[in-house]
Every structure is written in structure tokens, then in C-alpha cells.
Specification:
three-stranded antiparallel beta sheet, 12 strands, seven-stranded mixed beta sheet, 41% helix, 393 residues, alpha/beta, Aspartate Aminotransferase, domain 1
């Protein structure tokens, strides 16, 4: 039985080219990038080459990229680092109600430290409205953090407009662009953001490595101390093999960014179309025309999302009910709740996130599997009234 992986927003399989680049580092590069001898200098050259590749993926200058241990650390460094660096100017932070747990948890921590946080609402389509941000900014606002694209729904936010509003008020703007990297074009100059979080394992690179773009002139306080590494922003010997792999993954992603996005968009839309034709009472979560090309989040009435996942897993299909960081929680998705999706419907949501190895055959097989799974689960529900609405067995 072939396994079908439809959970690429959680993590992506390592590309062979990336593995080869990392293996070369492990086998042939023995020096510490901070050492001044010839082996250290060789390691430093590879590290800086990786930095250049990551910077090129978002249109940044290499010296504006700080490597971290992952996307969560990058988010925390941005949110906490800016908050403490600018605390003398104010203690007010603005974010959205649908951010990744890394940003939301950092904000909740800062609230305990005396900061105040405004959580912007979103529309029923999952969009942050620029007018809401304009109303929320105060003289004491020191940071705005709104993600580029949501990990659960794939909805793409109007980051350029939001960043412009913050810039006009001289407030640093951070965006978690982890889900956007490798799926849509990213440009720190076109969007005007001051900080941007990135992660290697969402773009067919290694786990355990991330990066934070910090625009020149933006102040930030380190989270940890102990060395001069990463221009004093993140101490500790760099993960050289991870950084090289991350850089190679970024380079490969840029090679056919538009073509792969078009291919995934066709598969995503075919999945949506087939499901809507064959399974009634299914709701698309998120703005139809403003989503990542690979992501679809569907709510199935009268069933639990976890039940659907188990049914799909029996056929070798891996999907998700939401963020991998919250998959163990029983509460409805905070993203869908913020969008006004009622709890029962939110509990019946499934996220399909496609990737480079998926084919049309995968999509059609997934739908063929999904139809009887949903039918069986609905027939078990005391609230469902059978009416032969689902076609196929």
C-alpha cells in the first residue's frame, strides 16, 4: 500500500539534494565556524554561503539573517527580543488572534511580565483587517506581529498594508512567514517588514534550524547569552550542516517556485471540487482566493476530525486536524474559533496540505477513501439524519 502524505504544513520530507549537501558537511568539514584556523575558515565560508541563500529567498541582505534553532525560536526572539529592547518607549504589543502558538505563547508570557497585548480579530474568512490595526495602535505600541500565511487555513494576510500602517506610526513589524517560504514569493523590501521568521523543515530542509530576518536598525535583545555568535543575537556554535541544508533547500525552492505553486493549486482545487461534489455539508475554512496554493481546511458536519484522520490512516493517508503544535489538544482550533466557526463544526475540521511528491492519483484516491469514511462516521452520529446525500460507498 502506498503512503500518501498530505501534512506538509507540519513538516516536509528532506530533499535528496539537501541531504547530500548536509552529508558533505558532516564528512568533510571538521572546523568550528568561529575558529580562526584554516578549518574554521572553511566552515565559516560554508555557513555564510548558506546565509546568502536564505537571504536571497526573501530578498534580504545576508548580514540581516540570524540563524536560530527553528521557527519557534525565531518567533520568540522577534517578539520577546523587540519587546524588551523597546520597553523604555512603551509596553503595548499587537498581534492577531490566529497566530502560531509560538507567537501567542510569547505574548502571553510578556503579559505576565507587565506588557499589554491586543489580539486583533479576524473576519469569517480569516483575514486581519488593516483598519483594525490602525485603530489598535497607541503611542506606547512597540511591536506588531501578524503572520504571512496561516498554518491551519492557508489564508494569506495583507502583510504589506499592515506593515505600512505600522511603519507610518514608527512601530516595528514582525511577520511569521514560516508557512509562506517556498510556496509564495516573499520579499522583505516589498512588504516593508522589519522582522521575518523562517524555518528549514517547512521547505524540504532539515528540522532544528530556522532564521530571523532583522532589518538593519531594528533593535533586539537576545534571549540567551554566552557568545558572540550570529552578531551577538543568538549565542552558541551554529548548526553548520543544518544551515547548509536550509540554504540549499531555499535555493531549490526558488528554482521553480511559480510552476510548483501552479501545480499544487490545481491539485488543491481538484480536491476541493471532488469533495464538494461527492460529500454534502462540508464547509471550506478560509478566504477561497487568498490561500496558500497547497492548503485546504474543510469542516465536515456531524463528524469528528480525529475520526476522519483515523479512517484515512487505515488507507495509508496522513493528514491533520490543524497545527502540529496543538494536535494533542481537545479544544477546538483557536484559528477556526477566531473566525467564528462554531465549536462542533470546528471539531470536524481536517487540513490537507499538499507537497511536491503528491500527484493527481493521490488526490483522487484520497477522495475515494474520504467518501465512505465520512458516510460511516455520520451514520454513527446521533445527530445525523441519513438521507443518501453522500454518493458512493
Amino acid at each position: 500500500m502506498k503512503n500518501i502524505y498530505l501534512d506538509h504544513n507540519a513538516t516536509t520530507p528532506l530533499r535528496e539534494e539537501v541531504l547530500a549537501a548536509m552529508t558533505e558537511i558532516y564528512r568533510e568539514v571538521a572546523g568550528n565556524p568561529s575558529s580562526v584556523h584554516f578549518l574554521g575558515r572553511a566552515a565559516r565560508r560554508r555557513l555564510e554561503a548558506g546565509r546568502e541563500q536564505v537571504a536571497a529567498a526573501v530578498g534580504a541582505r545576508p548580514e540581516e539573517i540570524v540563524f536560530t534553532g527553528g521557527g519557534t525560536e525565531a518567533d520568540n526572539l522577534a517578539v520577546q527580543g523587540v519587546a524588551y529592547a523597546y520597553r523604555s518607549k512603551g509596553e503595548h504589543i499587537i498581534t492577531s488572534a490566529i497566530e502560531h502558538p509560538a507567537v501567542l505563547a510569547a505574548c502571553r508570557f510578556l503579559e505576565k511580565e507587565g506588557f499589554s497585548v491586543t489580539y486583533l480579530p479576524v473576519t469569517r474568512e480569516g483575514l486581519v483587517e488593516p483598519a483594525e490595526l490602525a485603530k489598535a495602535i497607541r503611542p506606547e505600541t512597540i511591536l506588531v506581529s501578524v503572520m504571512t500565511a496561516n498554518n491551519e487555513t492557508g489564508v494569506i494576510q495583507p502583510v504589506a498594508e499592515l506593515a505600512r500602517i505600522a511603519r507610518e506610526r514608527q512601530v516595528p513589524f514582525h511577520t511569521d512567514a514560516i508557512q509562506g517560504l517556498g510556496k509564495i514569493p516573499l520579499s522583505v523590501e516589498e512588504t516593508g517588514v522589519d522582522l521575518m521568521s523562517l524555518s528549514g523543515h517547512k521547505v524540504y530542509g532539515p528540522q532544528g534550524v530556522g532564521a530571523l530576518y532583522i532589518r538593519k536598525g531594528t533593535r533586539i535583545r537576545p534571549l540567551t547569552y554566552g557568545g558572540h555568535h550570529e552578531r551577538g543575537k543568538r549565542p552558541g556554535t551554529e548548526n553548520l550542516a543544518g544551515i547548509v541544508g536550509f540554504g540549499e533547500a531555499c535555493r531549490l525552492a526558488l528554482e521553480n517556485l511559480e510552476g510548483e505553486a501552479d501545480r499544487l493549486r490545481l491539485l488543491r482545487d481538484r480536491l476541493c471540487g471532488e469533495v464538494s461534489q461527492r460529500i454534502p455539508r462540508v464547509k471550506l475554512n478560509g478566504a477561497p482566493g487568498l490561500r496558500l496554493p497547497n492548503t485546504v481546511n474543510l469542516s465536515f458536519e456531524y463528524v469528528e476530525g480525529e475520526g476522519i484522520l483515523l479512517g484515512l490512516e487505515e488507507a495509508g493517508i496522513a493528514a491533520a486536524t490543524g497545527s502540529a503544535c496543538t494536535s494533542g489538544e481537545l479544544a477546538p482550533s483557536h484559528v477556526l474559533s477566531a473566525m467564528g466557526v462554531e465549536a462542533a463544526l470546528a471539531q470536524g475540521s481536517v487540513r490537507f496540505s499538499l507537497g511536491r511528491e503528491n500527484t493527481l492519483e493521490d488526490i483522487l484516491f484520497t477522495v475515494e477513501t474520504l467518501v465512505p469514511v465520512v458516510k460511516r462516521l455520520r451514520e454513527m452520529s446521533p445527530f445525523y439524519e441519513p438521507d443518501n446525500e453522500i454518493q458512493g460507498d
